[in-house]
Structure formats: C-alpha cells, structure tokens
Amino acid sequence: MTDHEAELRRRLERLSLKEKVGLLTGAGFWTLRPAEKIGLAPLVLSDGPSGVRGTTWDERDHSLLFPCPTALAATWDPDAAFEAGRLNGAQARDKGVHVQLAPTVNLHRTPLGGRHFENYSEDPLLTSRIAAGFVRGVQSAGVAATVKHFVGNDSETARMSYDALIDDRTLRELYLRPFEETVRHAGAWAVMAAYNQVNGVTMTEHRELITGLLKGEWGFDGVVVSDWTALRSTVPAAEAGMDLEMPGLPTSPWRDNLVRAVREGEVAEELIDDKVLRLLRLAARVGALDGLPGPPPVTTPPDARRRLRDLASLGMVLLRNDGTLPLRADTRVALIGPNAVRFAAQGGGSAHVEPAHVVTPAEGLRRALGGDAQITVHAGVHPHGRLAPPPLALMTDPETGEPGARADYLDADGGLLLSEHRRAATLRFLGEGAPMATRQIVLRTRFTPDRDGVHSFAATGIGDFEFRVGTDVTSLTLVPEGEDAVESLMKPPEHRVTAELPAGTPVPVELRHTFAYPPLVLTFGIGYREPHLSEDAELAAAVEAARFAGAAIVVVGTNDEVESEGYDRTTLALPGRQDELVAAVAAVNPRTVVVVNAGAPVLMPWRNEVAAILWSWLPGQEGGDAIAGVLTGLAEPGGRLPTTFPVTETGVLSPVPGPDGTLEYAEGTAIGYRYYAPEDVAYPFGHGLGYTTWEYESVTASGPGGTAEVTVRNTGDRAGREVVQCYASAPSLPLRLAGFAVADAAPGETVTVTVPLDERLTGPYRLHAGRSIADLRLATEIRQGTRGLLRRRAPGERSLR
User: What number is the average pLDDT over the span 585-607?
Assistant: First the structure.
C-alpha cells in the first residue's frame, strides 16, 4: 500500500460510475485515460523485456537494446539483474513511460519454446531471484514492473486458447513461484494475465488464481492488466479480479457493457472501486497523480553502452576451451559464419526494440585486436529464409536525397495525409505511427547498387501490394502463414524478384500497400540481397580462409525467424548447413572457436571437434564488443547455464497442444535438469568455464532456509569470477537448486561467500556445493527441522484446480 490511501479514496469518491469504468480500459494501444478532475495524468505503458520501446515501433525512435533475459539469468547475479532493471527504468523515465511490461517469468519448460530467449530459466528459484532483482531495479527508478504472463503461458503454439493442465503441486512449486516471489518479496506493482487457460478456465476469468491466490493469499495490491486482447468477457473477467483491459479497442467487452452490468446488479460497484483504487495507487507510485509526491528524477546514464557491454559479458558462457582462448592480439583471424555477417542481437516479437547501432562481431574484434589485425570475413552458408533489409547506405530518399526512404500515407481517395523520411525499408505499426484515415502507404527509395550483378529484392507483408524495381512492376497479394498476429508482424510472407543491375546507377524501388482498415498491427517492407556466390562456393571459400588462419572464429546461431513470440521452434538443429560449416572448418583448423549466437539451446554435433565454444546468447546492441572482449581475455566469461542443453531433441517436451486444445503438463515438476537423464545432457544446468581455476575448500550451513558459507580459492594466474552453486538432496527427492552466490577473487585469493538458501527447503537434507549440478565438490548435512523437502499444502491453503 502507498502512504496516501485516504487521499486516493477521496479522489475515487469524486468519480461517477461511468468515469470509473472508463479508466479501466486503455485509451489507445499504449495509453490509459486521464481524469483531470482528480489530477490523474494519462499513464503510458511499453513493451520491455529487452529494452523500453515506447509507444511506436520506429527505427528513428532509438532505445537501448539489452542482452536477452536468458543472458541476464546466465549471470546468476541478482545485483546484475537490479542494475539491468534500474537502467531499464531510467530509459522508461526518459521516454515518458510509467509501466514497463517486464519481466517475463514463465519457465523454460521445453527448449522448443519460441519465447525461450525472453524467459529466464528452467529453475523456479533462479528465475525468482533474477526476476526479483530486475523488478526492484525497475521500480527503484519510479517505473512499474509488470510480471508476466500469469500463468502457464510457457508455449507459443495456440497460445491464445490452449488449456494448460497443471496439477496443484507442480503449479505452486514451479510455475507460480516466480510470480509469488516478485509480488511478495520484490513488491511488483503490476501483473499481466495471460491468454491461455489453466485447468479449464481462461486466465483473465480465473477467479481462483487472480482474486483467491494473487490478491488474497499473496496480498497483491497492484494492478492486474490483461495481455493485449486477452480480456474477452464482461462479468466473468470483472468478477475474476481483472483490473485493466488493454488495449483500448472499439470492440472492448468492458466500457459500456461493464457500466450496464453494474447497474443491472451483475457486478458489484465495490469491485469497480477496488479496481480504480488499484489504478490510482499505481499512478501515485509512478508520479502520475497531481498533488502527491512523485519519484526522484532518473535519467539514462552517459556510460549506458559500457554497462550493456558488461552485462553481456557477464552472461556469456564458455562451454568448452582447450586453451585456445583467450586469443593473442597478433592472431590472424578468419571470421566465418552467417551470424558473423547478419548478427542476431535480439529475438522477435513484442520484445523487439530499435537500437541506434548494433556492434557486430567484426567491429568488436577489430577494436579488441587492434588496427593492424588481419581479419577476413565469410558467411560460409546462407541459412536465412528471408531477405535482410537493404543497407541504409544504398538507399536515398527521392525527395530529400538523405539516406533512407520516403513513406507516403494516403486516404481512401488517394489524398496525401502524411509524407515522412524513414531510415529503414521496413515499417511496423503496433497501435500507433500512421494516421487513422490511412488506406494506402507508399514506400519508395532510390537504390544505388555498389556492385554489378544479379540483385534480389523482396516485398514483405500481408495483403495487396504493387512492387516496382526499376521499370518492372508486380501486383501481388500476400497471405499470412499462421494465425497469430505477432507471427504475421515478425515473419510476414515475402515475394522475391531479381534484377540485373550495374554498380553506381540508381534505380527506383517502390512498394505500394493497400488495405481496408486502419493499420493498427501491420508490417511491410522491402528485403534485399546483394550478388553472391552459390552456397557451395561460399562454404568452400570460408573453409579455405580458415585453413591458413591462426584461429577460425565461426559465428553460428539462430535469428528472429527462428526464435520469436508468436510461434514455437520445430527443431533444435541449427538452421541450414551451419553444422556442416563448423565441421568443415574444424577439419582444416585445430584452433576453431565456435561462437553460438542464440537465445535457446541448439544441437551441437561438432562440440567435441572444436577447440572452444562460447555461448553468446542474443547479447544486445553491444554484443560484438562483448564477444570480442571475452574471446581476447579483456573480459571474463562470467555466465553459467540457466537451462540444460540436451544432446538430442528426441524426447524433449513438446510445446504443442493436442488436437483437443489441451497441453498436459504430464511431466509434473520434472522439467529441465529434473527431466533429463545424465546421458542425454550435452552441457548441464549451471555449467560454465572461465579463464582461471578454482578450489572449493569448505562449506557450512546454518540450517534449513538459512545461509551457507562456502569458501573457494582462485588457483589460477588471473582474476576470475565464480558462481558458487548449492544443491539440496534427500532420499525422497533428487537434486534441487538451493541457492547461489557470486565470488570474485584475485589470483591465489581465498574468499568466503554467503549463499542464501531456499526457505522452502526444510531438513533433513544434504547440501552440496560446486560449479554446476554435475560438478559438486563439497557437502554437508542439514539436520534441523522435521518436514521433508516436498512442500505440503498449508492449513487453509486452497486447491487451484
């Protein structure tokens, strides 16, 4: 509760029923309605798991692009999570955003989950502590964190409707725990209800979970907001405990319908008052209520880019190293791989932001190795299914001559509503950005090739188009490949054309898109690919470059075509011929280092054939510098795996609901390291190497739910960072993560770290300490307490089925 409850109630009493209900549905896609008579300003919400995008999806509106949330969890450091959250909050304040839609705390139930990169971990304790640190950081800046997606929203396939069948123990022990921790211990100010059902009830109508558990048992005093369009009913959603419907569409099931339901006695007005009071409490917390003190000023610090680079380095995981890393400064490098050329800094979906610049691995290596470094670059293979946007340097606005393109917005009669310069050839609209009367958008540029040959262009989007390259004009209709609107936004179909063009001669390129409704959720644009070798020839050239290099750095991975909101992955294999490329390079160069640029596990059949493997995740805008820093030893690879990497995809849990629309969590609590047999694990939970060595000297513990003291010594010749991990076991239960802490030590230094233990684990049990779940060095017995490790339902605690 705030310190101003009486004042909030006085302001509530000044509102009519219609005014109160009007506050409970968004004014637009990202804003809430103001109420001037009580001093309530319009609140602004923004997507936020990888940075704060703001209210427009526009390449001219830059945001800091953070390492993906799984990379943040790989730090195993709640203080780093707080730092990331605080920096997010500062970005939000600078953009006028009051509510950030993050963190995402759904678990890594399966590595095939399309949104895996946006979630933290497979373990509920690790997820809880990282998420709590992030929430505290965001809210320390006076911005509301929104914990999502409550609950059982662990797959993307049919996410709008599937029914997650989860037993009580599994729900409480695993999937609800991060929500409980962030609400009860971090004090989250908002929670987002998911699209899916849980045990037969749609989450926005799940009274047992929203009112009974979240607001009742946990004492949540903030706002429960719907995922966008997830609220689909009037009375059931209102009585379930939903507080805020987003976005503000004309088809709202609340507004007039909710006013009528109250007047007809279907919904008690006291429920409406509670919802509005929660909204006013949120407004007071973020400084949007006149007459009440707001949070202190916060702004993005001048060293933000350095902080992002450090966060990325802290999360990078060195999976394997035969001594090749760190690289010497005089190493002649063959930089190879599709992700070296087309780097994946982020995944797809609503987490997407527009950074001012993304540092590529080539840029980072040239900086780290010095100006005289010898670096050759080859893609090797072409796994992308879609063309990339054209380089800005090759496009010219036909009106101004500036680098970029011209976008003209026309009404139904062809009248010009707006004409604007754009610095990209892809336009995305998610609620705002185009005039509401727009019925046609024309995107045009003068394209100047920088080489002779056959150039490929693509029209991308959904609907009716006219596509012009030079004098050739094509009329076409593109239809969506899936049913999810976000899938259509991130991965729209494309139509390709080719043109033989000479270098240096400008040609007009124009894409005209006609549609019948306002462009609330829309993406379309122009793709491009320069003249290129065949894939066989490109692979051969890459292998030849590797043959004579001092080290071959192969950057492989996924991209936002593979990892995105809106759809799940169908395989853990790297796209295209990337495995073939790695094997071929390793065969000619024993100093082959593989950098995997992905947010979720991939199969690595070559993992024992290469000198080193660095897992870089989707590392954000400073990723290239962070990768180079770790490869050259300027930075320590500080990360440890927050999820298990399997050997094979055979037997992994499926994210796909059955034909009846149900997704049965039949595995119960056995996900991640609780699920895999040892022989099925390529790299275990908690695994990660560094550039020094460690000896574990002693462990003591104060009892169940207390702390452990673990003493470690840096036995190497350089400073290092160790993630000390504690696990609990008992005859009735396999190993479970019990706590963790970070140790920093100089060469030869001995340090003792205090590890907060999971308060839900009660003795007697055996406590193990070590470097991962598969590398435990010390153990001690916890004998106090009488209850076992399994958490039993407390007296009066309700069943959730």
Answer: 98
Q: Which CATH architecture has domain 307-383+533-640+676-683?
A: 3-Layer(aba) Sandwich (3.40)
pLDDT mean over 543-561: 97
Contacts with 177 (C-beta within 8 Å, 6 or more apart), sequence order: 124, 125, 127, 128
> What residue segments make up the domains of the chain, in order of their start?
1-39+192-206+216-285, 307-383+533-640+676-683, 392-529, 694-782
The span from the CA of 236 to the CA of 152, in Å, is 20
Residues with catalytic annotation?
227
What CATH code would you report for 1-39+192-206+216-285?
A: 3.20.20.300
| Range 392-529 classified under CATH 3.30.1360.110 | no
> In terms of C-beta density within 10 A (0-12 exposed, 13-18 middle, 19 or more buried), how is residue 471 classed?
exposed
Q: Are 697 and 691 in contact (CB under 8 A)?
A: no
Q: Which tokens hold the place of 147?
A: 């914990």
Instruction: Judge residue 706's burial from the number of C-beta atoms within 10 Å of its C-beta, 0-12 exposed, 13-18 middle, 19 or more buried.
Output: middle
Give Cα separations from 786 to 71, 520, 729, 767 (angstroms): 38, 58, 15, 16
Question: Both tokens of residue 405?
Answer: 């393109």
The residues near 209 (Cβ < 8 Å, ≥ 6 apart) are 150, 151, 198, 203, 800
- CATH architecture of the region 694-782: Sandwich (2.60)
Higher pLDDT, 6 or 763: 6
Rounded to an integer, what distance in angstroms lies between the CA atom of residue 740 and that of residue 727? 9
Both tokens assigned to 122: 């497979």
Cα dihedral 759, 763, 766, 769 in deg (nearest 10)? 20
Is residue 53 within 8 Å of residue 63, measured between CB atoms? yes
pLDDT for 791: 35
Least confidently predicted of 204-213, 489-498, 742-751: 489-498
Beta strand residue intervals within 461-584, DSSP E: 463-469, 472-478, 494-501, 507-514, 521-529, 551-557
Q: For the CA atoms of 174, 180, 181, 184, what is the dihedral angle to 10 degrees? A: -160
The string of pLDDT tens digits covering residues 288-323 is 999 999 999 999 999 999 999 999 999 999 999 999
Contact 280, 40 (CB under 8 A): yes
Q: Which two tokens stand for residue 653?
A: 């849990």
- Over range 254-280, report the average pLDDT: 98
**Could you read off the pLDDT of 224-265 as tens digits, one per residue?**
999 999 999 999 999 999 999 999 999 999 999 999 999 999
Q: What is the pLDDT of residue 171?
A: 98
CA separation for the pair 773, 640 (Å, rounded): 11
Q: For residues 158 and 257, what is the distance between their CA atoms, to the nearest angstrom?
A: 28
**Residue 326, beta-bridge partner list:** none
Q: pLDDT tens-digit profile of 499-541? A: 999 999 999 999 999 998 877 788 999 999 999 999 999 999 9
Give me the phi and psi of 742, to 5 degrees please.
Answer: -105, 135
The pLDDT assigned to 800 comes to: 59
Peptide bond into 646 cis (omega under 30): no
In this predicted model, what pLDDT tens digit does every residue of 631-683 receive, in sequence order?
Answer: 999 999 999 999 999 999 999 999 999 999 999 999 999 999 999 999 999 99
